[in-house]
Structure prediction request, 128 residues.
Amino acid sequence: MKRTIKTRLLLSIALIVAAVSAVQSWISINTLRSTTAEAIEHEMRDAGHSLSNYINSWLGIRADMLSANLTLLAAGENADREMLVTKNAGDFLSVYAGFSDGTIAWGISLNPGLQITIRVPALGIRMR
Prediction:
């Protein structure tokens, strides 16, 4: 093949176009990678915040349910009924209550319709 000016010019232009295309492709790939990584991090952070807010709200609602019956449980008036209402309303597995006389009451549900409350005296164990 003769090396004419036309051939050299076409070869130079082809090499320049190939080099520019390669650089643009490399820049596009790196930009896409960083943008994708940032988007994923942002979505994960948002999902974490949403889950955290949900858990916080869920715990707050259950704490409010327990606090609502605090005065009735402290008075000892129909504590079994109040524990059952709190247990069912909060969808708890069990509800515990400690009394000033040292007794502890907890509800045990052997089946959904049966509520048994057992009171046992405190053991006098102190944690340090």
Remarks:
- The radius of gyration is 35 Å.
- The mean pLDDT is 79.
- The chain has three helices and three strands.
